[in-house]
Amino acid sequence: MRHATTANKAVENASLTDLFKICSQCERLCRKEIGVRIPRPLGHGPSRFIPEKEILKVSKVDSRTQAIFEDAFAALGRLDNISLVMGFHPQYLESFLRTQHYLLQMDGPLPLHYRHYIGIMAAARPQCSYLVNLHVNDFLQVGGDPKWLNGLEGAPRKLQHLRELNKILAHRPWLVTKAHIEQLLKAEEYSWSLAELIHAVVLLTHYHSLASFTFGCGISPEIHCEGGHTFRPPSVSSYCVCDIANGNGAQEEMLGNHLVTETSCEVEALMEKMKQLQECRDEEEASQEEMATRFEREKTESMLVVTAEDDEMVPARDVSRHFEDTSYGYKDFSRRGEHVPTFRVQDYSWEDHGYSLVNRLYPDVGQLLDEKFQIAYNLTYNTMAMHKDVDTSMLRRAIWNYIHCMFGIRYDDYDYGEINQLLDRSFKVYIKTVVCSPEKTTKRMYDSFWRQFQHSEKVHVNLLLMEARMQAELLYALRAITRYMT
Known about the structure:
Layout: H1 2-13, H2 16-34, E1 40-41, H3 52-61, H4 63-76, H5 81-86, H6 90-105, H7 112-124, H8 129-141, H9 157-160, H10 163-171, H11 178-185, H12 194-216, E2 229-230, H13 241-245, H14 250-262, H15 266-283, H16 288-304, H17 317-320, E3 343-344, H18 350-361, H19 365-378, E4 383-384, E5 387-388, H20 393-406, E6 409-410, H21 417-422, H22 425-436, H23 443-448, H24 455-485
Parallel strand pairs: 3-6
Antiparallel strand pairs: 1-2, 4-5
Helix pairs in contact: 1-4, 3-4, 4-6, 6-19, 7-8, 7-12, 11-24, 12-22, 12-24, 18-19, 18-24, 19-24, 20-24
C-alpha cells in the first residue's frame, strides 16, 4: 500500500512531459522484451483540426493550464482530449471541469450510474461516439449494469421515459411543452421528482452541447478507445487513410494555405465593419418595430443556411442502440407552414428565471452554470488574429445571439441587422452545422472561416457555440417546468 501511495504522489508531481516520457519507455519495454503488440494512435494529437504542436505548446507555456491538467489527471486518472483542447482557455476549462465534476460525482438527486447513463443517452442523439464510449467506461466503473448497454430497452423504465425529452431537446427544443414534463413527473411507479428531473435536464443539455464542441473542434478518440488506435505499422506517408477520409490530406492543406494568402485583409475588413456598426449605434437607434423586423428577417435567412449535404446519415450500431427514432433530427425553427411563437427573453430569461429555478431544486448548480456561461460569453484577450487592444464584445454577442435566433429566441434590445454584417456565409454554415447537426462538421468547414485567426480563437468560438446552445435548450426546458409548477 505504501508503494502505491508513493507512486500516486509521483504521478501527481510529474509534468505532462514526464508522463509522456514514461509512456514511451514502457512502450519500448513491452515491445522488445515482452513481445506485446502496442497500439499506435490513428490520429495526430487530440484534434483532427488543430496541429498537435499547437495544443501541447499551451501546457508548456501556461503554468495555470499545466496545473489544471495535473489536477484533472490526479483526480480522474486520465486527461481527455476535450480538456487538452480547452486548455487554450484555462479560465473556462477550470469552470467547465468544476461543473462537470459536480454534475457527475458530487451529492445530487440522481445515483452515479444513472448520471453516466443519461450522459450516454444524450451523447448518442448527435451520434457522438467519443462521448458515448467515455461514459460507457465510467458507467461500468461506478457499478452500472452491463445489460443496460445492450440498448435502451434494457434500461429501467424510469430512464426509458426520458427518451422523448432527450430527443426533442437535442434537435427541436422549442417543441418541449408542459405536457412532456407532466408525463415524467406523473408516471406512477416510474415517476421523476422535480429535483431529479432538473438534474437530468442539466445533464442532457450539457452533453448535447458538449457533443457540438467535440465535433466542432474535431476531437480525436483517445488511444484506448474504439477508433483511436491501430496495430498496423506507420505508413510511408505522414497521413493515414482515416486522415484523408476526414479531410486532413496534404492537398487540402495546400489549398488552405492558398486561401489564407488570398484573404490577407479578412481581419481588417471585419474590424472596419465593427467600427462602422459602433458609429451607427452612436448616431441613431432603430425603433422597436424595426428591431422586430430585423429579427424575423435574420430568422428567415438562417433557414436558408444549409448545414451540409442532405444525405441521411445512418448512426453506427453502438451509438444508435442508446436511443430510438434515428430519423428524427434538426429542423429549422418555424418552417414554412408552421408557426412556433418566438421565445422572448424579456418574458423568460436565464438570469431572472432559469438560474433561480435550477439553484432552488439542485443547489449550487445554477451558480456553477451561470459562472460557466459568463466566462464563455465575456472571455476576451482583446485580440483579433494579429491585432491587439481590440474590443470583441460586439462580435461575441453576434455569435451568441445568432445561435439563439436559430432556436427562435429573441432579445428585444439587440439589432439583428448586425449579424449579417459580422458573420459571413462560411462562418454561418460552420455555426449552424456545429450547433444543429454537429456530426456533419468537417475540417474543410473549420478551415473555411476566420482563416487568419489563431486556433485558440476558433476554440473560443466553439465554447460560445456550446454554451449558447446549452442555454437555449435549458431555457425551453426550464420554461416548461415553470409552467407545470404554476
